[in-house]
Amino acid sequence: MTTTNKLGLYLHIPFCVRKCSYCDFLSFGCTDNKILTEYAYALMEEIKIRAVDWKNKEVDSIYIGGGTPSLLSEWDIGRIIDCIRENFTVTEDAEITIEVNPATVDDEKLVRYLRKGINRLSIGVQSFENHVLDVLGRIHNKNDAFYCLQRAQKAGFQNINIDIMFGIPEQTMKMWKDTVRQAIFLRPTHISLYSLQVEEGTEMYKKIYEDGVFEPTAEEIDREMYHTALRMMKTAGYDHYEISNSALPGYQSRHNMKYWSYDEYLGLGLGASSFAGGVRFKNCDSMYDYVQAIKNEVAPVDAGSVEKYTQNEEMGIYVFTGLRKSEGIDLINFNKVFDKGFFEVYDRTIVDKYRGKLILEGNRLYLSEKGMDISNTIMAEFI
Length: 383
Known about the structure:
Blueprint: E1 6-13, E2 15-16, E3 28-29, H1 33-51, E4 58-66, H2 74-87, E5 89-100, H3 107-115, E6 120-126, H4 130-136, H5 142-155, E7 160-166, H6 173-186, E8 190-195, H7 203-210, H8 219-235, E9 239-242, E10 245-247, H9 254-260, E11 264-268, E12 273-276, E13 279-282, H10 287-295, H11 311-322, E14 329-330, H12 331-338, H13 342-345, H14 349-353, E15 358-361, E16 364-367, H15 369-373, H16 375-379
Parallel strand pairs: 1-4, 1-11, 2-3, 4-5, 5-6, 6-7, 7-8
Antiparallel strand pairs: 8-10, 9-10, 12-13, 14-16, 15-16
């Protein structure tokens, strides 16, 4: 069960100019404006269909992700935002985020976003080194990234996230430090830092493990990059509040916190995932099936994805996601949600097993920075 009447909305835009070499998300290259607009209208129809069942909830966060949402015209994005407001109850202080690629956003789009109430921008920078961007297959260069953030600030955006990535083949420690320094210099309110995950089936996987074009980054170098960045950002005033995220005080991502705090979110668009009404489910991955469902005025849910977990499974998910936060999980809230004491369910010796890495402090259980290095191992104890 959830303990709030708030709901987050995630809208998936699955189109890119081209797919990056490391990406295994549900996305594909398409720059045909007709197709993009047709998808926008299908998404708006889904909004109308799904809103019927969720009018009792207040939407306090909206996240438009992808893919590359900024590939859509600013007018289509504006119509989507209008459609949400017309069909859902959106709070006055709702956090509304859109992801943008530096090469697909301009001043006109930025101004239009603000006019429509989008108040948070997430810029996919990844690196301020052109060679590293080439390795990743990004379509922008470092100057595009630099000026995108400056233009966004000039347009009036006060809440801006930038994504940066480490553990990339041929990325040296100096390159990584330079990217972190540049990120801090530009002073976004939020910085997300991700270790490159090389997934089978991607172009990056093929280049590393099949063709031998690149060498994978050693684990010890990856961890050194991570902790180096955290130290640099902490010195600059950024609060490390989640494994992969740091923010200036007051600028934590409300929407992302929902994923880690057992709050409800509804996914709209192709393949989007949801946790709502005590059930986890996702939309179909096939564009044909998605469009057909919309034409038939039914929710485009993949019936095979609907899962209502047992209480023990939900408790495991609660702990697994909650330990991603630097503050960890509140054991009193655990009892409130599940009507069971934490140590009625889990063995207290797990804390002793990971002494110095898994910390029990009063009613709070959290990972130390060293614990975050083996977070998946520790979290698996609770699944």
